[in-house]
Amino acid sequence: MVAFLVAIVTNYVTAEPPGWAENTVVVWSVFGALAVVSLGLFFWERRLAAGAPDGGVRPVPLGRVAAGGIR
Known about the structure:
The chain is an all-alpha fold. The chain is built from three helices and no strands. The N and C termini lie far apart (56 Å).
């Protein structure tokens, strides 16, 4: 079923491409922008996953904060 739907969409897109898709400068610009954004998000995620910048202090559970403060 999925292969059938992909075939229909692929046939539709190749039969009548949008106007901007025929301009190679626009297509490669969009591709390049997506590649740069993807790399930026990749390195940002790695930085966030590297650990806490404050020496590894664990966050306080929200329940303890709501119950009356940090102990």
